[in-house]
Amino acid sequence: MLRFVVARCLATIPVLIGVSLVVFFTMKIIPGDAAEVLAGPQATKEQVELIRQSLGLNRPLYVQYVTWLSRAARGDLGRSIQLAAPVTEMVRDRLKNTLVLALASALLAVAIAVPVGILSATHQSSFIDRASVVVALFGNSMPTFWLGLVFILILSLHFRLFPSNGMYSLRGPAGIPDLLWHLALPALTLCNVPAAVLARLTRSSLLEALNDDHVRTARAKGLTEARVVVRHALGNALLPVVTLMGMQVGYLLGGSILVETVFSWPGLGLQLYDAIGARDLPLVQGGVLLVATVFVFINLFVDVLYAVLDPRIRYGA
Amino acid sequence: MGGIPVGRSITRRRFLGSLALGAGGALLAARSTAAAPTVGKSGGTLIAGWEAEPGAFDNDIDRGAVTRTLLHNIYDRLVDRNMTVKANQPLVGSLAVSWDISPDAKTYTFKLRQGVKFHDGTPLDAEAVKFNIDRDSDPSHKYYNKAGAGSLKLGYGNLASVVAVDKYTIRIVHKDPFADFLPVLAFGTYSIASPTAIQKYGNEDYPNHPVGTGPFKYVSREKGVKVTFERNPDYWAGAPAIDGFIVRPLPEAVTRVTALQTGEVDWINAVNPDSMDSVKSNPNLVLELAQLPNTWGYIPNHKYPPTTKLQLRQAMSWAIDRETLARDVMKGLAVPAKGTHAAGTPGYDPNITGYGYNPAKAKQLLADAGFPKGLPLEVWMPAGGAGSPFGVQMNEFIQQNFKDVGIDAKFTQQEFQTFQNNMANGVQKDVNALQVGFSVDEFVNLQRMFRTDLQPPNGNTNPGWYSNAEVDALLKKARETTNAEQRKQLYFQVEQKAVDDAAWIFVVNQKAARAWNKKVKGFVNPNSYMFTFRTVSIA
């Protein structure tokens, strides 16, 4: 097991270097640089060049990359142009909020998808099964930002059930209940696609598991169907669900840009949206690097978790 | 200068003096300020929904209008446009109570307001003002700010000297005549910051600890969540009635309007056109439009044919149905542009009639220009269209207008910075026009737009290579004319020439839609990108 974990951890190193290369050079391909943004449209070329020198942007690209990477490894991602603050602090603070939203959405997705998937599988071709297909198709097809706006207009504006924006109230006390109240609509919006995908996968995976030999044996022993499903089929059926959930976290992080913007949720997605609008290149660079790194580590975590759940994986390694 | 009492008792605007610009000759003196017309009670915190997260609050760097207007709440400048006036905001003294201008328009001597303190207690005096100017103009200054110097090049880029004559007198000398210096000093980025705070935090960190003399003090920022300001109880023109205000970034337009309708915020900027009717029909809300000093249009290529032909540029001008564009495409958030300046903003000349919509005349002019069967044109614009949320739809509408008279215009979208670089390099042979949205708030912009010697690479605001010796002579005379009224007339002549020459294809002047809860009293919605919450109270 240890060997498997170490091998997987070592494999992330070239991936992370690849990520850093892509992030760095993508930002370099974009026309313009931080010096031009900082200097403003009125500055002379000499003034822009002075700023460029002070930021080290006149040095060869590979030197800039190595400098940037070594600083990033030490936790220094430069300074935001628009907000004049260290990028590391900014993205760290905001990542926390994004993870709160992503985690809540993931939990909500599992809480909705697994029971629906089980019901569909155990009631194959019934009304419940067909209804879940329609709902899942709907959930998978709706653009996230559109769904978010619909929730705002109906549940926030019309029924006044939930706040339309933010993470906590600007007026009145902020606490866990206030946070959950603010979390409701963005989490519901963001969980929509993963819930739909997971529900369908749970269904098909459970149907497959229910046809396994050991399940037939369990039934032959005279166990109740509920016990057969929960004790003997569900464990195996949820293995691919765990993997897919890990991949869906990537979606949740990416989808957070749209959802956080619609709900003004102060996470990394909204920060990236603002940074792109303000052409705050160091902040965009730092934010994208962080999201990509988090994604790599989540994949690593899922791989390890999968190995824990399924011995065939770790022995295969 | 003592403070002015605030609260219920103040119900009218009080001016201590008004602008004496135009009083003739070399001596121009002004003593003025404006007190808040408050109606509601004192206290309370206003929550304002903003269309984007404001940038850092450097006093001298332009981080866009969403940030710049907050500089007007934190800082003061030597002189100011009075933003508590709805239209044609007068230029008034702020930290300067009076000034002398030398007959050659090079030397400005300001008498400073006495008894004013920065929010950190540092007294405002001539040394403090000199510190600010040197910081953005003198590379040997210990706190020289390269980015600030770039941002303030227009005002401080050609200084001969800055001298603190005595504790409350400062003399600024330009190398060349600069009669437009006062309105330039009224720009938000010419704000005066506390030297103590800059020394304490250094250039890098100062923007996170801004300290001015303005009506509100910066308190804190929770990025992406809120920026908090509190009233300056010692404000020299009278403390604001509210305890403070919170800026809440709400980038999604529907969410912003919803937050206003549900009472989560009290005031919002940039109401989206689709929501205007629902805001108007809500009895608890007020929706008000403000004419912006904005000119949206096209800069033709004056250097390379075919747009070097006057008749072609005039044909383009006559071909555009501005009324329909403003009413239907832009949902009333614009008026047809007649020239460089919008009605209701300082610098508007009512005698300039501009171009109407006359396709027949456009066709005739095309034929006169030698294109009886029409011609193709290449127009470049930044991705999404420049300077308007309707950018793409506007260009599509105008493309059809052009087509109706025989001009087959191809619009090419470019990445923003690429477009900016093209502006800086000037429009090249294969491009016939650039689409731009310009803030034309002061006459000095006409210098930047039309001066031959500011063509690229000497500037990026005359990228179409416009050049007219008569206009250059008028602009030079304007730079040397200290009498504001005479200078205004010179600029009116420049504008008329620019319209006659179709130096630009002027299309529309855009408006801003702002809305607030009726419990918010006393907000003046000025015809400007800038505004202040100094006059606000909450009922």
Helix/sheet category of chain A: mainly alpha
Task: Report helical residue fraction of chain B.
Answer: 25-40%
- Total helices of chain A: the number is 14
**Rg of chain B, alpha carbons:** 23 Å
Number of helices of chain B: 16
Morphology of chain B: globular
Stretches of chain A where pLDDT is under 50 for at least 5 consecutive residues are none
Gyration radius from CA atoms of chain A, angstroms: 24 Å
Distance between the termini of chain A: 9 Å
Largest interface chains and counts: A-B, 52 and 49 residues
Following the backbone from N to C, one meets helices and strands of chain A in this order, namely HHHHHHHHHHHHHH
Give the mean pLDDT of chain B: 89
Mean pLDDT of chain A: 86
Taking the sheet with the most strands of chain B, its summary is: 12 strands, mixed
Give the total of beta strands of chain B.
Answer: 20
Verbal overview:
The complex is a heterodimer of chains A (317) and B (539). Chain A contains 14 helices and no strands. Chain A is mainly α and 317 residues long. The N and C termini of chain A lie close together (9 Å). Chain B is an alpha+beta fold and 539 residues long. Helices cover 28% and strands 22% of the residues of chain B. The radius of gyration of chain B is 23 Å and the shape is globular. The two termini of chain B are 29 Å apart. Mean pLDDT of chain B is 89; it is low at 1-39. The interface between A and B is large, with 52 and 49 residues.
Q: What are the key terms here?
A:
heterodimer, A: 317 residues, mainly alpha, 14 helices, 0% strand, globular, B: 539 residues, alpha+beta, 12-stranded mixed β-sheet, 4-stranded antiparallel β-sheet
Give the arrangement of secondary structure elements.
The complex is a heterodimer of chains A (317) and B (539).
Chain A: H1 2-29, H2 34-39, H3 45-54, H4 61-73, H5 87-122, H6 127-141, H7 144-158, H8 176-190, H9 192-210, H10 213-220, H11 225-263, H12 268-277, H13 281-309, H14 311-316
Chain B: E1 45-50, H1 65-74, E2 79-81, E3 91-93, E4 96-101, E5 107-112, H2 126-135, H3 146-151, H4 153-156, E6 159-166, E7 169-174, H5 181-185, H6 195-205, E8 216-222, E9 226-231, E10 244-249, H7 253-261, E11 267-268, H8 276-280, E12 285-291, E13 294-300, H9 310-319, H10 322-329, E14 334-336, H11 359-368, E15 375-382, H12 391-405, E16 407-414, H13 416-425, E17 433-439, H14 444-450, H15 469-480, H16 484-500, E18 505-517, E19 520-521, E20 537-538
Helix pairs in contact in B: 9-11, 15-16
